[in-house]
Specification:
Chain B: It comes from Tenuibacillus multivorans. Chain B: This is Stage V sporulation protein AC. Chain B: It holds the Pfam family SpoVAC_SpoVAEB. Chain B: Keywords: Membrane, Transmembrane, Transmembrane helix. The complex is a heterodimer of chains A (about 120) and B (about 150). Chain A is mainly alpha-helical and about 120 residues long. Chain A has one domain. Chain A is about 80% helix and about 0% strand. Chain A is built from 7 helices and no strands. The relative contact order of chain A is 0.10. With about 150 residues, chain B is an all-alpha fold. Chain B has a domain of about 100 residues. Chain B has 8 helices and no strands. Classes of the chains: A mainly alpha (about 120), B mainly alpha (about 150). Chains A and B meet through helix 1, helix 2, helix 4, helix 5 and helix 7 of A and helix 2, helix 3, helix 5, helix 6 and helix 7 of B.
């Protein structure tokens, strides 16, 4: 149990350090960094590597935005096995639905309840 | 004469130098901590609701998004972001923050043209690039699996 937390901390932290280096050294904008990370997650999952990272680091790999790319591809591949080419379109948002839906819902509620600052 | 090139060179000495090591440590600590909270939530959903680790991922991410959206509303997440840099931008909470803050910022323009239209102004790039790259990788992998 303790080791689960430890590796989640280390791996999640290291992914953020890579992002910080891209920001400070390569002068990318935050939008470029997160977009690259999502693409990286999808490509890593294409080689079945991201699942190994999740197995090892748990939330350290599922919480960073790279896991969004991984989930997109995972949903697409699961449906592609059943329906062929069309399955890629059917399945692509299947696993990411919870994340996108809750971001829209909670973002909307927050915008209604709170007053903008500054 | 001031040209674009020597202007960029001239102002360089007046720009604050980012302290790379310090920034990386801050990003590491905050990013790691967010993942630890995520790990705690995953274990909570596994123990209390009998989810498998895979099934627990979605409620974990939704809970983190809820927390981040609320912290954005209170103006706290932006302060964390100033301190942590990529440490708060890279986790999925940063995605939620960009959705909620864009929606909140344009509230004065109304619910349809303000909140709803601008909600994905910042987060849209994540969805677009994620979807396009997953499509391409998915098709390649499907072809490879079929014909090799």
């Amino acid at each position: 149990m303790f080791m689960d937390f430890f590796w989640a901390f280390v791996v999640g932290g290291l992914i953020c350090v890579v992002g910080q280096i891209l920001l400070d050294v390569f002068k990318l904008t935050p939008a470029h960094v997160v977009s690259s990370f999502v693409v990286a997650g999808a490509v890593l999952d294409g080689f079945n590597l991201y699942d190994k990272l999740i197995e090892f680091a748990g939330a350290g790999a599922t919480v960073p935005i790279t896991s969004f790319g991984h989930s997109l591809l995972h949903g697409a591949m699961a449906q592609a096995e059943e329906h062929g080419f069309i399955g890629v379109s059917i399945g692509i948002f299947q696993l990411t639905s919870a994340g996108i839906a809750s971001a829209i819902l909670f973002g909307f509620i927050v915008a209604i309840i709170f007053k903008p600052k500054g | 004469m001031i040209t674009k090139d020597n202007y960029a060179k001239d102002i360089k000495k007046y720009q604050p130098k980012p302290n790379l090591v310090k920034n990386c440590i801050k990003a590491f600590l905050v990013g790691g901590l967010i993942c630890v909270i995520g790990q705690g939530l995953t274990i909570f959903y596994m123990e209390v609701f009998d989810f498998t680790e895979k099934q627990a991922t979605n409620p974990t991410i939704s809970t983190l998004i809820l927390i981040a959206a609320l912290l954005t509303g209170f103006g706290i997440y932006d302060k964390i972001g100033q301190f942590a840099g990529a440490g708060s931008a890279v986790p999925v909470t940063g995605f939620a923050n960009s959705v909620a803050s864009a929606a909140l910022e344009h509230k004065s323009e109304g619910l349809v043209l303000g909140v709803a239209t601008n909600m994905f102004k910042l987060a849209g790039s994540v969805i677009v690039f994620g979807t396009v790259s997953a499509y391409i990788v998915g098709l390649i992998r499907y072809l490879v699996e079929q014909f090799l």
